[in-house]
Amino acid sequence: MHPEEQQLYEIILIAAIVLAIVTGYFIYSIIRQKNHVLRWQQNRIRAEIETLENERKRIAGDLHDELGPMLSAVKLQVNHLEPVDENEKKLLEKSSKHIDEIVKRFREISYDLLPNTLVRKGLVKAAEEFFGKMNDAHPLRIEFNYPTELAVSKEKEIYFYRILQEITHNTIKHAKAENLKINLHKTGTQLILHTKDDGCGFSYEAKLNESSGLGLLNLQSRAEVLNGQMSINSQPGKGTEFYITIPV
User: Fold this and answer.
1) Measuring CA to CA, how many Å separate 231 from each of 55, 78, 151, 244?
2) Which residue has the higher pLDDT, 86 or 43?
3) Is the N or C terminus of the chain more exposed, i.e. has fewer CB atoms within 10 Å?
4) 202-206: which pairs have CB atoms within 8 A and are 24 or more residues apart?
5) Whole-structure pTM value
6) 180-210, pLDDT tens digit by residue?
């Protein structure tokens, strides 16, 4: 090989190495920037969800600790009033019933915002209680299977409980299903949630373009905040399955 050719090859080789280094650094920068953006988005979503949960907790506390006792005191005062005639008696009885209904509704709202069972007894007991209420209030039959022992941090419990709520409410509202099976189990360091209903199913892409697709986005956001993954298997007329995997 002539010296000129040798020198040309060396120049080409050096240029190729420099180009590879520049390209590699460029790709690394893009990946790094993308990961940075994803982390920023995840932290923003986490902050928004945490703010929402804290506000729910505050409102639930106000309803339970302040408005509830206040209404009970009002009812006690109403019950101690002495009606002068039959019309006043009926009016007082009607007012007392209205107060009972308001107190009951406040308790329901407080429970929906943050059930005491979740705070005191954890995810499984709260889920059992929630599914029991849903079975009593709706024709949907919910079957809940879970491990005998399940250790989940308090932070993750509330996120996971909201996921169970969202899937159940979506099934009741949209699926027209008769049965919903919910299986929760742990494999290694992964907590896996699998749900399946026998409802009408849907097209995932079409649903996201509708206003009702907000529930799916909420599920996706909560799974991502927990560093988890969610997949959906659904077709019109063939029911819906959710697979959610969360590291614990």
Assistant:
1) 29, 55, 24, 7
2) 86
3) N
4) 202/174, 202/234, 202/236, 202/240, 203/234, 203/235, 203/236, 204/232, 204/234
5) 0.70
6) 999 998 888 888 999 999 999 887 777 766 6
